[in-house]
Amino acid sequence: MRLKFSQFLVALLMIGGLMLGGCSTENVASNTSPTSTATSKATEASPKSTTEATTVSETSSESIPGMKDLPRLEGKATVVMTVKGSPITIEVDGTNAPITAGNFVDLVQKGVYDGLKFHRVVREPQPFVAQGGDPKGNGTGGYIDPKIGTERRIPLEIKPKGAKDPIYGKTITEQPELQHKQGAIAMARSQMPDSASSQFYFTLADQGFLDGSYAVFGHVTQGFDVVNKIEQGDIIDSAKVTQGAENLKTPQ
């Protein structure tokens, strides 16, 4: 029993750190309490406290405010991210995560990630994540959209395995189509489900306990050895879309 409790505590602290890597003021507030993660997960499970689940076919009715104004990736794209002079090839999956993938590819094309650092890398007590993409560099920032003058946020987007469309705005208990396998890339967020912006993380090992709670949108196809050597403070030299740029659809 002590071993199980210890493993649970380690997982709780890991998730807590991942949530702190979300963005904006909710993140800062949660920084004072390591138990806030457990509270937030219980809160997210309650339909009274979260946005109702929405499928992509319902977005025309604006069930998630502002969703129709977000970039969307219709299909797949390839992004090559260079860290310490070495390339990491990422397959970005807009088939199963169109909004999350579209947001990432759009930010890559805008050059948002160039020069940003990995502000959080966790390998102890076991390999966990390498997290970056924060313009502030401290885990509290996100992408400020010049069109609206505020932080662009995207809804939590998870497609259950075998489902036609993703579910938006809430965590799920079903097995997702895109899972936290070693080399997955996913969005970090604060305690609020619809708070992801620009911060992302690579999983350094399989992290199945995150499935259904965070939005995976692709995986590393080449260069995981580079990911595995990322240290806290390392800089993203550049990120470029090398294939599939035509699949990105942006609001006019």
UniProtKB/TrEMBL annotation:
<feature type="compositionally biased region" description="Low complexity">
    <location>
        <begin position="29"/>
        <end position="63"/>
    </location>
</feature>
<keyword id="KW-0732">Signal</keyword>
<feature type="region of interest" description="Disordered">
    <location>
        <begin position="28"/>
        <end position="70"/>
    </location>
</feature>
<dbReference type="GO" id="GO:0016853">
    <property type="term" value="F:isomerase activity"/>
</dbReference>
<feature type="region of interest" description="Disordered">
    <location>
        <begin position="127"/>
        <end position="147"/>
    </location>
</feature>
<keyword id="KW-0697">Rotamase</keyword>
<keyword id="KW-0413">Isomerase</keyword>
<comment type="similarity">
    <text>Belongs to the cyclophilin-type PPIase family.</text>
</comment>
<comment type="function">
    <text>PPIases accelerate the folding of proteins. It catalyzes the cis-trans isomerization of proline imidic peptide bonds in oligopeptides.</text>
</comment>
<protein>
    <recommendedName>
        <fullName>Peptidyl-prolyl cis-trans isomerase</fullName>
        <ecNumber>5.2.1.8</ecNumber>
    </recommendedName>
</protein>
<feature type="signal peptide">
    <location>
        <begin position="1"/>
        <end position="29"/>
    </location>
</feature>
<dbReference type="InterPro" id="IPR044665">
    <property type="entry name" value="E_coli_cyclophilin_A-like"/>
</dbReference>
<dbReference type="InterPro" id="IPR002130">
    <property type="entry name" value="Cyclophilin-type_PPIase_dom"/>
</dbReference>
<feature type="domain" description="PPIase cyclophilin-type">
    <location>
        <begin position="88"/>
        <end position="252"/>
    </location>
</feature>
<dbReference type="Pfam" id="PF00160">
    <property type="entry name" value="Pro_isomerase"/>
</dbReference>
<dbReference type="InterPro" id="IPR029000">
    <property type="entry name" value="Cyclophilin-like_dom_sf"/>
</dbReference>
